[in-house]
Amino acid sequence: MSHNPPFLLAGVMGWPVMHSRSPLMHNHWMQQHHMAGAYVPLAIAPEGLAAALQSLKPLGFAGCNLTIPHKQTAMLIVDEVDDAAQRIGAISCVTVRADGSLAGSNNDAAGFIRNLKEAQPDWRADKGPIVVIGAGGGSRAVCYGLMQEGAREIRLVNRHFERAEQLAADFGGPIQAYPWSQRHDILADAALVVNTTSQGMVGQTALDVQLHELPTSALVADIVYIPLETPFLTEARLRGNATVNGLGMLLHQGPLAWKAWCGMEPAVTPALRSLLENSITSALP
């Protein structure tokens, strides 16, 4: 009597999308767990997003992940959005239910927090003030995750002060917006600093934030993972700060998608991290 292996068909929708390391990560897990199927990159232009999402069920997909520029628009297309995604204002994962309806969730906040805890097991959100740089979608996920972990003071700074003010107003609680001109000074007693902007990414200019006021005991994190060490993280490391890059945020949101799609959470292992790191470094000039 033959036994068919479990089957999973999923993918990542973006525009562009071929740079994504998600297929490498998810297909590694599928091979590890002897699963039939595939995880594929889906290059979907913005005007085709609704049709693409509505095609998931008839094509046999369990779901998909979403990347730029689809995370906010997809909220208006899926049938239901969970509470975390509603607060964050974006979805990163779509699950196809048995009846064909689409459920949206956001795993970015949990991925960010899991990444910090893997790198620094004794890290706590209430250790001291936290500075978050940027007020876009990544910042919203990071701030939500930090608030869920019990952060008592989040200093939010953005080049456009109005966006920081709006995010602080939307979330409330411990978030205080600061003008860009104060970005260096508000680091003075920080326990954690997070860059949520694209500055420092390959092809982008370096982040214009000076760390001379930052205690060397502070943890410095970046959600960028190409390159693995941004100029911001290099400066922090050289002055003695512990650093965390953004690759773990990608790695740790993946198992949550699997849990929604097929009821299991694959492990984030050193071997998987090395696989993605090697893929990134070999692709850089």
Describe the structure.
The protein has 285 residues and is of the alpha/beta class. The chain folds into 2 domains: 7-106 and 248-283, 3-Layer(aba) Sandwich (Rossmann fold); 109-245, NAD(P)-binding Rossmann-like Domain (Rossmann fold, 3-Layer(aba) Sandwich). The protein has 9 helices and 12 strands. The chain has a 6-stranded mixed sheet with strand order 2-1-3-5-6-4. The chain has a 6-stranded parallel sheet with strand order 9-8-7-10-11-12, with helices on both faces. Helix 7 (231-238) links the parallel strand 11 (219-222) and strand 12. Helix 4 (108-119) crosses helix 5. The longest helix has 16 residues, at 247-262.
The main sheet orders its strands as 2-1-3-5-6-4
Please tell me the total number of domains: 2
According to CATH, what is the topology of the largest domain?
A: Rossmann fold
> Which homologous superfamily in CATH is the superfamily of the largest domain?
NAD(P)-binding Rossmann-like Domain
Silhouette: globular
In terms of quaternary structure, what is this? single chain
Unreliable residue stretches:
none
β-strand percent reads 15-25%
Q: What's the Cα radius of gyration? A: 19 Å
The total count of helices amounts to 9
